TrEMBL record:
Keywords: Methyltransferase, Transferase. InterPro entries: Methyltransf_25, Methyltransf_Superfamily, SAM-dependent_MTases_sf. Gene3D superfamilies: Vaccinia Virus protein VP39. One of its GO terms (biological process) is methylation. It comes from the Bacteria. The keyword Methyltransferase applies. Residues 50-146 form the Methyltransferase domain. Pfam families: Methyltransf_25 (PF13649). This is Glycine/sarcosine N-methyltransferase. Its EC number is 2.1.1.156. One of its GO terms (molecular function) is methyltransferase activity. The keyword Nucleotide-binding does not apply.
Amino acid sequence: MADPSLARFFDQLAATYDLLYPDWPAAVAQQGRALDAHLRDALGDRPHRVLDCACGIGTQAIGLAAAGHAVTGTDLSPVAVARAVAEAAARGLSLPAAAADMRRLPFHDARFDAVVCADNSLAHLTTPDDVRTALAAMRRVLRPGGQLLLGMRAYEDARRERREVLPARVTRLPDGGRAVTLQLWEWHEDGEHYDFDLIQLLPRGDTWEVRSRRTTSWALTRDQVGGFVEAAGFERLAWHEPADSGYFQPLLTARC
């Protein structure tokens, strides 16, 4: 069964998820261009059937749909999914989407040309069995020769330093105000898992509204992620760094 606390975390975050980015519309366009380039390079310069299996409010799915791909979105959070559909429609785009756990994708085998799992979503699965189950589900819904695109945070330095606070992000609001996002990390004894508090400060007149939410992540290294992906039966694994790929996080690509 899906973790209700994780679904609740993203349900509560959905209304302000865009404020994690300094400029969310620009991020949607930029990430869409980067992922589109990878898809067309790997699978051919034409539209493809794409599943974004952790679509959130549509950050990657909307950009890919704008690039001409037939994108379907799923996410653990029904509130986030509803916003993704609405954000796509506001841009004149169709984004069929549903609430679903990436470990139990509700699609027939070999349905998609590509599966995207981005924004460090795999790290919210905190056991090897869960990661293996999710990757097996992604592989199942990919056609033979299909492409996996997996966006992950670069955790190697964070684990070595046992990082506790991430730099604050400031987002300019349409009315000229500012919103601030902070992350506080509390490491588990194993040195791999951590609880994090996602804290958002939202301007309310002459004061601030503080919204704080907590969940757990697994600080998976590239070697760990690659090992899981290879064990799931994927081939031709390659990591692409942001400076080369144009994508904001390290991106793993692999073929079914």
